Amino acid sequence: MTTLDVVRLPAPVLTQPTQLVAQLDDDVRAFCRDLVETMYASPACVGLAANQVGVASRVFCIDVTGHRKADSCHGLVVLVNPQIVLGRQPVVAREGCMSVPDLTGDVARASEVVVRGLTPEGRDRVIEANAFEARALLHEIDHLDGRTFLDRVRSLGTDVFARRRYR
């Protein structure tokens, strides 16, 4: 397995919709393993989309296990070609991003979601999530659609903040 480099804005791959994965093969499964390894190697990271490592494919992973804001928790989730089936109950909360490392922002997202996709092995998977896990799922799907959290804030002047650095 390999730890991949995370790309940052203004990299064009972050602002363009990703492509559907046509065939789940050994290369896709190896990439999924590398994506997960990269997520786990990145401090405070709970999710990572393929285009965040420069690959324009519709793949992401999340794991909110142990996060203080998590209610639902499905452990490690890796989805290929995910789609949002349902989203409701929007809540505004602060978000950060590996590809926008110096900023955070207040973003309204559904606090209850149903997301469907394929596992790397090709099985259909449906995730019903709430609270922080719902936010993480939606954040990564936004990446796959060519959006960052900055595209979701109401005002760049009042809802975006410099990330605090702790020593």
Summarize the structure.
The protein is of the alpha+beta class and 167 residues long. The chain is 18% helix and 34% strand.
Describe this structure in words.
The chain has a single domain (12-162), classed as Peptide Deformylase. By secondary structure, it is of the alpha+beta class. The protein has helices at residues 26-41, 131-144, and strands at 47-49, 59-62, 77-97, 100-118, 124-130, 160-162. It contains two helices and six strands, in the order H-E-E-E-E-E-H-E. Strands 1, 2, 3, 4, 5 and 6 form a six-stranded antiparallel sheet that branches.
Topology:
Layout: H1 26-41, E1 47-49, E2 59-62, E3 77-97, E4 100-118, E5 124-130, H2 131-144, E6 160-162
Antiparallel strand pairs: 1-2, 2-3, 3-4, 4-5, 4-6
* CATH class type: Alpha Beta
Mean pLDDT: 95
Shape designation? globular
CATH topology: Peptide Deformylase
- Structurally, the number of domains stands at 1
Termini, distance in Å?
30 Å
Structural class: alpha+beta
CATH superfamily: Peptide deformylase
What is the H-and-E element order? Answer: HEEEEEHE
